[in-house]
From TrEMBL:
This is LysR family transcriptional regulator. Residues 12-69 form the HTH lysR-type domain. GO terms for molecular function: DNA-binding transcription factor activity; sequence-specific DNA binding. InterPro entries: LysR-type_TF_proteobact-type, LysR_HTH_N, LysR_subst-bd, WH-like_DNA-bd_sf, WH_DNA-bd_sf. GO terms for biological process: DNA-templated transcription. Keywords: DNA-binding, Transcription, Transcription regulation. It comes from Tenebrionibacter intestinalis.
Amino acid sequence: MHNPALKKLPLPSLKNLQTFIEVANTGSINLAADNLNITPSAVSHQISTLEAFLGRKLFIRSGKGMRINALGEDYLQQISGALNLIGRVTDKIINEPHGDILRIHSAPSFGVLWLIRRLGSFRAKHPDILINLTCSYENLQFSRDNIDIDIRHGIAQWDGYKTLTIKNERLLVMASPAYLLTHPVSGPEDIPNHNLVHSTVTLASWERWFSFHKIATRHPEYHLSFDRSYMSFEAGKMGLGLILESSLLADELLERGELEPVFQARYAYPVNAHHLVMPHINERSRKVKVFISWIREELAAEGYEI
């Protein structure tokens, strides 16, 4: 689609910008010339042309050479991300035979326990969109890492991005049927007498769960501690103790009977722990719209919403 607003913007030569970045990074016209495979005089000419276009000096000249000034530093910071984005998009078009790839980064436990189990449904409905899924607890940079959607775990505090929070998620006390058969739980006050599995990444600890439900008890002792929820789920399935984990991630395990909730719903702990995060420009993409519509339907079928 033609964008008439671009005609109104003062856009310098891409070649001049590339030269400017090279000189700014190397601090040398000669090194920049070698890296760009052009002559030093051509480098100087392109820098002068860019400065004339801007009507401002970007470098301080002296007998020892030239160094970038404060305005140049600011300009460098502002344009580097844009040029990097142009390069990545161009490389994507040139080198990817599949034209519609949706790149999703996810918190590991959500990716492993919820998303990957449902991707067959997405592919059946949208075979024209190829999913590329990576998982880690890093908050990646969208342009640098070429990510369309980042599914994050934590407290929503990402100003400047579109954030869709998954609602109605709860933390539940769960255990395997085998564990509960041999270690019956008489009530919430009995929990400290059991083997407790601690997850360091959930938004509420056992202590906070006790406090939320106004249950007076001694400080619980943990028998196992993990930094990934999917490890806590595995420990629970193996009968190693009680876990306090997400209802969202546990749905299939509960449905298959591999885990059981220890208490009724009144002893759940409400959280808003998972979020779909993206730059505002990404939400206008067709493939992103399709994915959001699909995941909204999947979540709604299980009692959640975004």
